Amino acid sequence: MKDVAARAGVSLGTVSNALNRPEQVSDHTRRRVEAAIEALGFVRNESARQLRSGRSRTLAYVLLDAGNPFFTDVARGVEETAEAAGRAVFLCNSGDSPDRQASYLDLLEQQRVEGVLITPVGRAQERLERLRRRGIPVVVVDRDAGEGFCSVNADDRAGGGLAAEHLLELGHDRIALVGGPTSIGQVADRFAGARDAAAAAGATEPLLLETAGLNVVEGRRAGERLAGLPAARRPTAAFCANDLLALGLLQRMVRLGLDVPGDLAIVGYDDIEFAEAAAVPLTSVAQPRQQLGRTAAELLLEEAQGDPAHRHRNISFTPELMVRASTRAT
Ligand code: RIB
User: Fold this and answer.
1) C-alpha pair distances (Å), 274 with each of 129, 243, 279, 289
2) Are 319 and 303 in contact (CB under 8 A)?
3) Is the pLDDT of residue 68 over 60?
4) Which member of 151, 200, 281, 326 has the lowest number of beta carbons within 10 Å of its beta carbon?
5) Is the pLDDT of residue 51 over 80?
6) What's the mean per-residue pLDDT of the chain?
7) For a pocket test of ligand 1, which of 94, 191, 270 has the largest count of ligand atoms closer than 8 A to its C-beta?
C-alpha cells in the first residue's frame, strides 16, 4: 500500500479510501491510484483487512451433498442475494460427514466469515450455538431449526400429502414409500404426510422400503426389491423421498422391462431439472429451491447487520405437485 501511495503521489489513507470507500475520492485521484496498483501488480491482503476491521464481506453455505442438484440450486439463490449485497460466498460440501462439517465450521470461524448458512448433518445444535456466541450468525436451511436460529424450509408433511393424494386419485391403493434413513427429518415428515393421506382415503397402509441414503444407487436397489415382489403383492405406485431416488428407481424399472407408469407409477420430490428431462418425465413435488436460498441469505444479512429488531424465525414455503408422464397414463 505504501509503494502504491508513493507511486500515485497520495497518502496511505487516500489509497485505503480509493479501495474501500471510492465515493470519498475524486475520479482523477482514483484513476492515479488504480494506475499505480496496475503498474506495481498490487493485490490487497483481504485477511489483513479483515483483521483490522474484524469483519469479512463473505458468507458461507455448508451444504449436505454437492452431488444433489437440490443443494446446488439452493446455493444459486444464496449467491444471487449475497452478490447483490456485495458479498462473496464460500460453498462447503459436508458430504453428509459430521467430521467434515466440523472441520468446515472451524475453518469458517477462523476466517471470521460474516455469517453461515447450513443444512446440517444431524443436529449440530451445540456447535452452531457456539458459532453464534462467537459473533457469527447462523441460518439453518431446509429444516425448521426451532427457537434458537432463523431457518427456511418447505412444508415436507404437506408435500408428502400432495404426492399420496395424487396417486390415490389415480386409483392406486398399494403405494410404496421409498427413502431413508427415516431418521432424516425431511424423509420422516414426507412419509408421515403420505400416510395421513392414505389413512384419510381409507387406503392400505403404504409399504415402507427404507433406503440407506437419498441417491440414485439406492433408488436402483429399491427397484430390485420392488421388482422381486410377487405381482399380486407388488405396489402399483411408489412415492420417493427425493428425485435422485426416483430417477434410480425409474432407471431400474425400465432396465427390467417394467412399464412406468403402467406397472409402477413413480413420484419424486424436489423437482430438480433432471426430473422433467428423465426418459419418462418424472412427476415430482416441487420445492422452491432458489427462493429457499435467497430467503436464507436475506435472513442472514439482516441478522449480521445487528438490527436490534431482528427476531429469529422460521420461514416455511408451500410445495407444489408437478404432474408428468411417470404417473399420468399417456
Ligand atoms: O438431503 C436430501 C433431500 O433433502 C434433498 O433431496 C431435498 O429434498 C432435501 O430436503
Assistant:
1) 36, 8, 10, 14
2) no
3) yes
4) 200
5) no
6) 93
7) 270
> What is the Cα–Cα distance from 105 to 60, expressed in whole angstroms?
10
**Cα 233 to ligand 1 centre (Å):** 29
Ligand 1 center–CA 12 separation, angstroms? 50
Q: At what angle do helices 185-200 and 156-169 cross, to 10 degrees?
A: 40
Domains, the chain, ranges and CATH? 2-44 (1.10.260.40), 52-154+289-317 (3.40.50.2300), 156-288 (3.40.50.2300)
Q: Helices 216-227 and 243-255, interaxial angle, to 10°?
A: 50
User: Taking the model in full, what pTM does it have?
Assistant: 0.85
If one compares 246 and 12, the residue with the highest pLDDT of the two is 246
User: Over the stretch 185-212, which tens digit does the pLDDT of each residue have?
Assistant: 999 999 999 999 999 999 999 999 999 9
Q: Specify the residue with its C-alpha closest to ligand 1, atom 6.
A: 242
